Each structure stands twice: as C-alpha cells, then as structure tokens.
Amino acid sequence: xxxxxxHIRVLDLSRILAGPWSAQLLGDLxxxxxKVERPGAGDDTRGWGPPFLETQDGGAGDAAYFLCANRxxxxxxxxxxxxxxxxxxxxxxxxxxxxxxxxxxxxxxKYGLDYESLKAINPRLIYCSITGFGQTGPxxxxxxxxxxxxxxxxxxxxxxxxxxxxGAGPQKVGVALTDILTGxxxxxxxxxxxxxxxxxxxxxxxxxxxxxVHVACLANQAMNYLVGGTAPAAMGNSHPNxxxxxxxxxxxxxxxxxxxxxxQFARLCATLGDASxxxxxxxxxxxxxxxxxxxxxxxxxxxTRRRTTANWVExxxxxxxxxxxxxxxxxxxxxxxxxxxxxxxxLPRDEAGSAPSVANPLRLSRTPxxxxxxxxxxxxxxxxxxxxxxxxxxxxxEDLREAGIV
Length: 406
Prior knowledge:
Layout: E1 9-12, H1 18-28, E2 32-37, E3 52-54, E4 60-63, H2 64-67, E5 73-77, H3 83-94, E6 98-101, H4 115-121, E7 126-131, H5 146-152, H6 177-200, E8 205-209, H7 210-216, H8 219-228, E9 245-250, E10 253-258, H9 262-272, H10 286-291, H11 293-304, H12 309-318, E11 323-325, H13 329-334, H14 336-340, E12 344-349, E13 353-358, H15 382-390, H16 394-402
Parallel strand pairs: 1-2, 1-6, 2-5, 6-7, 7-8
Antiparallel strand pairs: 3-4, 9-10, 10-11, 12-13
C-alpha cells in the first residue's frame, strides 16, 4: 500500500452519509478503515433502496445508497450495547489513529466509547464527532438530517424558482449536499489533527456540525446578506452577482451560459448575432448587467432560441464563452470528458461479481488514490480483524458469534 495515509488506521463508528463519506475518503487515500456495524442489520443505508445491487444468484444485495460511501473499508459486526462488545471496540480503538462517529451528543458515553473514555486508553487518538448541531448550544441534543439542515440553514430559501413564477417555493438540493460537505470538512479536520500529532504526539477531539458547515458554505450568499443587509431570495437558475449566468432556451431545449467577465460578454453577443448589446451603456459592465437583468435577459433569450443547444455550444466554445448542455445522469456518464477522466469504476465484489462506483476526484501524482475493495458485505471482515488486530483465537470468535456479540 503506497497511499498517503497507508500508515493510518481508522475506526468508523458512523452510519448514513456524512461520517461514512469522511471515512471513505480516508480509505481512498490509503488508510485502513474498519466499519463497525450492528450484527444482523448493519448501516441503515444497506436497506435504503431500491435500487439494490443484484447478487450473482439474482437476489437483492445492498442498496446503491450504501455503495456510494463505503468502499475501501472492512466491515466488522459488534453489538456494543453489550459489555463484551464494548470491550472489543475499545481494544480496536487502542490500535487505531482515528475514530469517526455520528451519534447524538453523549450517545456513546453510556457505552464507554466517548472521546474522554477512549482518550484514556489511547492518548494519540483523533476522535471526530459529526452531529447535526454540534456538541454545544441549545440545539445540541437534537438529531440532525440533511433535509432539515437545508431548511434551517437557509439553503432552501435561496433555491428554486423566483417568487411569483410557476412552481415557486422553497426547494432542497437534489443531493444530500450538507452531509457530503460535512464529511469533507470532517476529513480536513482529521488531516489537520494528524499533522498536529506529528509535532506534539497528542490526539484531539474534532466537533463538526452539519448546521455549522451548511452556514459556512453559503459563501457569497451569506456575505451578500452580511454586507448588503438584505436576505437573498430564490432566483431559479440566475446568479445574484453575475449576469448572464443562467439557463437559456434553445430551439431544442435549454443550455447554460456562464459569463464571468465583460470580454466574454462581448464575445457572447457577437456570436449570438447582436454585438450592439455589449456596447449598450446599461450592459457594458457586469454591475450594469446585474442592475438591468430584467431588460437584458429576454433579449438574449430571443437570440438563443434560434439554434440548437449543440450548435450554440460548438459556436460559443470556439470563442471561449463558458457554456454547456443540461445533462441527465445517463448523459453525464456518457460524456467524453467523464469517460476520459475515468469517473465510472467497477470494483470486484464477491456476492455480485462487481459493484459500480464513482472515482475519487483527487489526482495525486506520487501517492494516487487506491481502489482496493468494493463496499464490504455485512460482517465480511469480522473474523480477520479480531484475529489480526486483537489476536483473538478462532474458537473464541466462534463463541462471540454464537452469543450474538459479533
């Protein structure tokens, strides 16, 4: 193993998406990741389908949802609601560098698996807690889910069609984006803590909250409010600070035009067939175009309707105007750029022959991302890990199985 983190062991006590996403990223970078799951049930997302990955005998395997966030991991089943199971997890943590968990605040303390308890047996441990609202504050005890956070954190108020248009109203994003971003921030925190441990020899606790991450990622929209004092509203596919930067109708559908500066706007107008628009004092600068978007956009729409999407994309790409079609996922994975970059993977998986996956977007020149294994079947690695990590003999492992502890 030559990955950047091939010297790191991770104990993944998380489930659903944010925590598993963080652990999967660490696994992609070479870490050995062990996912602890409930015997007989496992991560809830194993059953979050359809669709389910079909097994070689034609049955239903794990859900696609589970497969998206759990490659490069081993699965160990342990019932840590029981004292024997708690001791096993503690011993695993003794041998690990990182623990990731996303239980409610204080949820693991009663099992002796909270940070303070595990720190006592492994002071070098980096312990990442992912919750909906963080370890402090009036909402700390609450459960948090991505959809709820998108609502409370303001994203739904700025997503969707403009007020007054057909179909207007608060709208969530089509992917659990807050979970994904929280997983990424969690990974960044873990890497920072690992770097600090290289200097100090000490681990630390990382507190990552979905709501905190969500508000931090409002980016320009948050600053628009903090600087301007007016809460942004939904604008459909329009941009609050740039014009034209939205979808436009064509003769056979729609396309996106994303003009980032005044020179691109001039080339856009010339290519669309009306260079005079770029000379109009109202539209010469982006500031003017934002102020006069209601007048400008219909004029551009009248021009874009004259040709097909493919025709416009070809013409605008020739003059360096950012643009593109609005693809569905079938079109995405058939796109020549996606194919060339190898974003669709197939990983060997015993029960199904292979499992599809989406490649990690990181391209490291010396320590490239590794795809060592597909998402594991439930408990696939229990015997191996207990034997190799903890030196538990086979007959004792069998006793633990019969007792339902593993």
